[in-house]
Design goal:
Layout (H helix, E strand, L loop, with lengths): L14 E4 L17 H14 L4 E4 L11 H17 L2 E4 L19 E2 L5 E5 L2 E6 L23 E6 L16 H6 L4 E5 L6 E4 L2 E4 L5 E7 L2 E6 L1
Parallel strand pairs: 1-2, 2-3, 3-4, 6-7, 7-8, 8-10
Antiparallel strand pairs: 1-11, 5-6, 9-10, 11-12
Helix pairs in contact: 1-2
Length: 227
Amino acid sequence: MPNHAAESHHAADPVLVVADIHLGRKQHGDKKTGPGIDWALDTLQRGAEAGARHLVMLGDVIDRKRFTEATYGEVTRFFARGLELFDTVVFVAGNHDVHHDLTAVIPGGVIVARQEPQTIRAGGWALHTAAVEVDRDPRELVARFPAPIKDEPNLGLLHTSVTGEFSNNPCLPCTREELAALGYGAWLLGHVHERITLADAPFAGWVGMGRAYLATADGTAVQVIDL
């Protein structure tokens, strides 16, 4: 029988990725709605039960206009539950999040992505990302993203409008070709609220509001599946 013990430390357990929850929005009866805290907490539970050991919140955990003081408590609850369920919890700020000071709201233990391209290690994963700096962030960062790490699954994560046809305003703009050129196993995106797939191999697409993806690894190959 093959001996897998030597490679067990490279095992990359699934990553749960959610985006654009927009806590503070009503679930119905308003011009702009969101899935709400109950959906968010249930999704964390379902992701953990599906085998995910790592969580990425890919931007816009809170709405920039539709919120109350109680909404900050919901943000804390979301991340605190993530820390209970997952080995790694990563927050990549989106364009709505930067309207708030979330420093004291996000619990210690959450990895808060910097605003410059970086690689975050999560178990056997190399997660490549950069956070939004300002609303309508005009920076073109993808060309400066890190090279993929050899022999490990590489997942790109960005809150981006890409080329803009699916969003109202630019946010960390880039092209599909730039995403593909980096050679990552997949790209998961936030910002656009519809679930839109830009490329199948390697996968690139928006998670979508009220939706979640699981990124799974088979060696260095990355597969993205609906939760």
